[in-house]
Amino acid sequence: MFLIMDEQTQAYVLFIISLASLIIYCITVFALMVSLFSGWLCLYQQTVPPVEHELPGVSVIKPLMGLDPLLEENLESHFQICYPQIELLFCVQDDKDPAIDLVRRLREKYPKVDSHLFIGGKNGIINPLVHNMAPAYDAAKYKYIWISTSRIKANSDILYDMVGKIMKPNVGLVHQMPFTTDHIGFAAAIEKVYFGCVVPRYFLALNMLGFTCFVGMSYLVKKAALDEVNGLAWYGRYLAEDFYLGRALRKCGYKLVVSAFPAQQNVGMLSVCSYKDRMVRWVRLRLSMIPLITVVVEPLTECFPVGLYGAWCINHFFGINPYYIFSFHVAGWLLLDYLLLRNIQRKTLAFSNLRFLLAWISRELMTILIVVEVIMNPHVGGGGLCLLLFYVFFPSFSMFLTLLHLITPSFFSLVFISFKEIAILYNLFFSLIASFTSFFHQAVTFLFLPLVFLVPQTSFNVSRKAILKLQAVLWSLCGLRCFVHGVLHSPTLLLKSPMTYRFVWDAVDGVQVFSKEEVSLFFRLRVITWCVHLNVVGDIISLSDANLHESL
């Protein structure tokens, strides 16, 4: 369609797309700067309740389900809060929950603390969290309710700050920005990067600019205000009760204020897989509430997508080398995220700067795959689906670069590739990827894989599948290098290279590690993607390549 337009129409279309991209880019960078400055100005600036007023009583509702290695530490931190009038209300699903013994032991250890245990929920409520909390909410004797989930570690300063803020007449709810405590390991570093860079990136900016961004992990609410909007149990019909609860309070004229202290999530047994699974569930939940924002706006405001279309539109308007723009963008974004994390942490990080860099890159790349996985499978999770996305994402990414090459030929100008220093660094980077992946590919193929196939099926089935999946990932990395190298140097040569077609057969050969349903999905996506990539885009590449050589 773009090819059949006349030159003037093409110019108008490109101008509109470029202008919209530039506006989104500027808004995103502005939000990042606002979050950084609001963190400096607002975080850890405790609000002390007025001395002339008697401190109101607070009922702390603590929903529990099962045991976590650090659950006792989290619950005991609530028993140790020094506050005049406070009651702890623990809620469990049934009398078989292992958390009951822990709660009873802590109640015996702190007999002077007013605490109660509620077993069983309220019928007719879909949301399991609200189902557990409803009896405790009805039995609460104080007019301020602090809902604190099981993974939250508390202290007295947090409660005093939230009480000081909620005593203002127009404030209906005070909530904490999610954060996490320090732990050892790469998964803990990814968690810290997510809750210290990604979440505050827009959480602080939106709340500073007057928009509602509320996460129901830990919040203090006026019971009268919540009863005014139908009470807590009414929102049990939604899985994301915090979203609808916060929106209802805003509509009634109440303000939602952010606490000066981030919520300290204290969870043991962290892993990258558990992080990915939790993010998938969260994105699926958001997809059911705000689908347009979840699948369009949020992915387009991540670092790498913003950098790609930001570099393209700046190149279109000002003619600046997009390689320089993209490199400067990523470096600047990384620096701002690091400053934001240090600002929220307010102490030395539990990991090195190198580990921060690796965790930051890993999280940024995982986000794209998580969103695509949710779009492809919005209801039921499937093991190995992320590996299937490698086989679909890489050719699609190549197609995207090819279309950029068509719209703005100078984006991949051979002059930049041959003589500019930044292009040399890019080529060196992808060459290193190719070298390492080739080495590990040979090691897996000729050393580990034959040994696994010699042992009995029942003994090493897990190891065999893990190695096959590792080999599939290495094939995908080799394919990525092939596509990027081909697009940057000569798109026409990409279609003629035997490495391109070998990658297809290697990928098909790796399908044996997946289930029957995943194989069916794989072939459908592979056929569609490669038909488009080799047939339609092949013609586009030829046309754009010819135009490029003409311009040179």
Explain the overall architecture.
The protein is α/β, with parallel strands linked by helices. The chain has 3 domains: 177 residues, no CATH class; 189 residues, Spore Coat Polysaccharide Biosynthesis Protein SpsA, Chain A; 171 residues, no CATH class. The protein is elongated, with a radius of gyration of 27 Å. The two termini are 26 Å apart. The C terminus is likely disordered.
**C-alpha Rg, in Å?**
27 Å
Quick check: average pLDDT? 74
- Please tell me the total number of domains: 3
Which second-level CATH architecture of the largest domain applies?
Answer: Alpha-Beta Complex
Q: Main sheet, how many strands, which sense, barrel?
A: 7 strands, mixed
The CATH H-level homologous superfamily of the largest domain: Spore Coat Polysaccharide Biosynthesis Protein SpsA, Chain A
Give the structural class: alpha/beta
Note the gap between the termini.
Answer: 26 Å
Indicate the proportion of strand residues. 5-15%
Shape: elongated
The total strand number stands at 10
Which fold name fills CATH's third level, the topology of the largest domain? Answer: Spore Coat Polysaccharide Biosynthesis Protein SpsA, Chain A
Low-confidence blocks of residues: 380-428, 430-435, 437-464, 484-552
CATH level-1 class of the largest domain: Alpha Beta
As a percent range, the share of helical residues equals 55-70%
Order of helices and strands: HEHEHEHEEHEEHEHHEEHHHHHHHHHHHH
Strand order of the largest sheet: 3-2-1-4-8-6-9
Count of DSSP H/I helices: 20
